[in-house]
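Example with several molecule types.
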Amino acid sequence: MSTAAGKPTAAIDREHGLELLRQMLRVRRFEEKCVELYSATKIRGFMHLYIGEEAVAVGAVHALRPEDAIVATYREHGHALVRGVSAGSIMAEMYGKMEGCARGRGGSMHLFDAATRFYGGNAIVGGGLPLAVGLALADKLQGRRRVTACFFGDGAVAEGEFHECMNLAALWTLPVLFLCENNRYAMGTAIERYESETDLALKAASYEMTAWSVDGMDVLAVEEAARRAAGEVRDGGRPCFLELRTYRFRAHSMYDPDLYRSKEEIERWKEHDPIPALSARLQAAGLLNDADIEQLEQAISTEIEDAIAFAEAGTLEPVDELTRFVYFEGAAP
Amino acid sequence: MSVAPAKTITYREAMREAIREALLADERVFLMGEDVGAYGGCFGVSRGLLDEFGPERIRDTPLSESAFVGAGIGAAMGGMRPIVEVMTVNFCLLALDQIMNNAATITHMSGGQFAIPLVIRMTTGAGRQVAAQHSHSLEGWLAHIPGLKLLAPATLADARGMLAPALADPNPVLIFEHGSLYNLEGELAADAGAVDIERAAIRRPGGDVTLIAYGGTLPTALSAAEELATGGVEAEVLDLRVLRPLDDRAIVESVMRTHRAVVVDEGWRSGSLAAEVSARIMEQAFYELDAPVARVCSAEVPMPYPRHLEQAALPQPGKVVDEVRRMIGVPADE
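Resulting structure tokens for the full complex:
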């Protein structure tokens, strides 16, 4: 593992660098607030935090265009935020309110937003991959040059659906960008304990698709790789696979006592925290000062407080609407 | 009434005509599944379609049920109208995650944002001596799941006419084709088209008892009704047609006329669709009944290979006749 701060500073545009930093900070602060709200029992159910992994979603989503689609996992608050789903509608969703991005029906693990082509929030490991393959198939059959970005964790690689989908996407040359967020643990089982081959890009490459591994703690590296890969998917009309090597600083979920890894290991990875890494890099290049950071933090704090106020003020769906949306209302678009 | 001349057609051909018509009518429709193309479909339903429509619209898939069923869901969400063929209901077990966790939930989990206009066709049932792993009747299992719609065409008109409204439905629709029906042959109006996919249908009127069946057990119930008629018992045969949502009204109305009901279901008795229908009759027409609802289901055994044991395990007209005679107090031996 190399740190981003240790790399030679490529030319970074100040505005772009600040935007990447702002997005990572938004996700971090949002997740920190979620912990408080969970403890205060405002948010219930299963909740999985993205703290430590922010560079992956921020870098990858910045490589996408508005017409592209995203399929994500149950650890998807960050992806939704960066994609442009409003913090208020995400928070309201976790409050179970009608103003939520899925009307409160999904909760933390099932964020959906048709307007930004955000197709969930899938809580079955590997379950989103076939959907992504199908969305890409629809694009191919209708002659649309769009990318379907499919996020999934390292744990999904052990699922049959992963292998079925790698094969199908490559066989049918479908425009899917597979983004494997390798945080080294399938819930509490370390990758060395469940994979016979831990080089995940190698597995994808065996399905005849371009695949490589990226330092997922370096937002600029992620973004650069995702742009290249998305370009290959869009222009070449074929799938591409990125393994984004990352680490979650928090437990798997709010229920996880985190007994399966050492504090030392976590501390070692925190030295590669993507947020200070980017800050340091921007500061070293003279593109960022303390006042900038203060300003970012202030704006984010206001955004999150507004989101909480929005969720608090939201409405609970009347119980007589319980069985709505089991079937689609109206004709299919 | 149609004025077009009738033509002789098989169930298999009726299904193929329906698929062909759908492909011609809507560019967004395509068929995918194992061996639907070059092979012509495991049961010959799609024979000839690859030549006519080409490999983009008649797509042979790898043996990856989860991937291609899920891809059907994604493609439907992406604006297509996929017809996914899962060779048999037995193999849909390999795609249950996609059927149950995605197809049946996404509309609801997204707060109604996404429609899933998907059709999944599969062969179901036993009777061909293919033993325990290829003889399941799991319609009852799948009918348990809110968010899905289930159809069981048992006639030529339904084989011909259920697909179009299923494709027009914004929800995932599962169509079960009983393997014993493909060679069913008969007359069908040359211009036969779409049928409703909401209502059960009376296939034979009668006032003494209602035989409730679907799919592969419709011929069983009709045959039992014929035999009962020779003894002066007039059975009404109700074809459920739609397994979810069930047409409660048709069931209850028939029972209110006959005051007796026997449910004929190829699924295992415990937790079966027959159990659900019985419960609904009890809930909605208890005081109309002259006898407890009876069920003729498959024996609770993995389907055995030998013909005599398989036949013993399956609902047979004779068992239905015996149930009815017992119910109305006619000695089984007359």
